[in-house]
Amino acid sequence: MNSVEIKSLTKSYGKFSVLKNINLEVAEGSIFGLIGPNGAGKTTLIKAMVGALKINSGQISVLGKNPLKNSWDLRRQVGYMPQSPSLYGDLSARQNISFFGKAQNISGLEKEVDKILEFTELTERGNDPVRNFSGGMQKRVSLACALIHSPKIIFLDEPTAAVDPHLKQRTWELFKKLSKQGITIFVSTHLMDEALLCDKITILRQGEVLAVDTPQNFLARGKTKIKYEKNGEAKELISGSDAFSLAIELKKLGLQSDISKIQIEQDNIENIILQITDKKQE
Amino acid sequence: MKHAFIIGARVIAQLKGDKRFLALSLIAPLIIIYLLKLLFDAIAPPPLPSIPGMMPLGLDLFSAAKFILPAAAFIVHFLSFVLCAILLVQERTRGTLDRMLISGFRKISIISGYTIGYFGLATLQALLVIAEANYLFDFNFPFKTICILFLVIWLLAIVSVMLGIFISTFARHEGHVFPFIPLIILPSVFLTGVIVDPEKLPRLANYLGYLFPLRYANNIIITLQKNNYGFNDLWPDFLILIVYAIALLLLAAGTMKEKE
User: Fold this and answer.
1) How far does B3 lie from chain A, in Å, by closest CA?
2) Chain A / chain B CB contacts < 8 angstroms
3) Which of A151, B95, B137, B164 is within CB 3.0–4.6 Å of A86 for a Cys-Cys bond?
4) Per the CB < 8 Å rule, is B17 touching A91?
5) For residue B5, which residues of chain A lie inside 8 Å, CB to CB?
6) Are A27 and A47 in contact (CB under 8 A)?
7) A249-279 CB burial, b ≥16 within 10 A, e <16
8) What is the CA B216 to chain-centroid distance, rounded?
9) pTM for the whole thing?
10) Under an 8 A CB cutoff, do A103 and B260 touch?
11) How far apart are CA A177 and CA B136, in angstroms?
12) Per the CB < 8 Å rule, is B10 touching A88?
């Protein structure tokens, strides 16, 4: 079953088209990555899915409902973490989480706040004003605010932008935990390495979906360069990225005594995605 | 309504957390009134030798209450408007306004919540301003007059909060609030009786003055300085101020966008 279904979605501001004929399906309980450079339309697409944006044409269904017409029903089941932390700096982490939790009329809210503070590893700093937090910690408070009402789907707009690698890893561990609990995670990012952590990714550029696939299938689209030296002469072979293609190419070389050096260079996900976007641009 | 109180409580918690903002809101009007006291002391006519059986000349010509109380009302009006508008615009620039709406707060709850949050601040502002003006200028008003004075300045502060909320819906960032000051706030100094009696102004200027809420507050303040005022002299202006507040609340609710 799909948590999100989008058909022929378009959105424009005047003559400027921000989203062009978007079609997407997001499976329930999966981690779905929306990859694209700044200005690709990621935030606009997320805002349309959380019911904060009027669209020009097309259909959006989130948990089987139209987010524009059923926005008040959906808000109890949908979590949203905006790109900027969007918190009250003068209030503590606990007060911020509690405030956004009250919008959902949660019973036993204080216990839920305790649980979410523990889940996001913020218990020790829970009573400190958010303005004293680092950018990464503010993002975690923001995530906690989005999770306080135990949503079925959560939309995360660049949750790890400007976060240090260590904290980024821990944040992704949290996403994996949430996914295991059956929560659908829709995450936008311009960081290509995060694509590998998703179950499925879509590449968005200038408001257009360029490709949708699993990270493994994207990697298989890449090429592997086999650089070798034969009789002192540098040579190069190009193979597919999958293990079978590589074996075929290596068999051709064998382990002949005149081959003194073999070096293998595989396309990484960033190269592959950039190749896809560049190809479309041409 | 429950959501409005939740937002109101959050606004109060935020105000308590922002000591500079709180100090500015409460101490700035007091400083300005004290400066006015210094100004009035400097320009007041020297005391004339009293002649038994005659009123001292010049005293009635320079009654401080005529100027100080409208000026105090204006200060409260100005600060309440600017500070509330800026705080609400900050909600937009920080992204918390969008987040509140997406989280399930409705715009009418947000506007009402802000008004509830400012009730306390407006009450404190009005109390402090009247207490200081009464102390410095020794007005010796009867208790009933002081109570009505408090009520009118408090009501004006609430109207100013509503005006701030309404104007904030047109501003994308804090800087957008400032052009509204010469457009909406400053004309009220000249057209509503803070400096001159608006009835003495050219007809058009006099009519323009009726557009500003400060005009109605000043009408009440001027009436209160007469010895024999009655309820019938006050209620029309009080009613207009209340209608003004409700109209601004509805306008703000109409102009605030829930969806882009």
Assistant:
1) 7
2) 69
3) B95
4) yes
5) none
6) no
7) bbeeeeeeeeeeeeeeeebebeebbeebbee
8) 11
9) 0.80
10) no
11) 65
12) yes
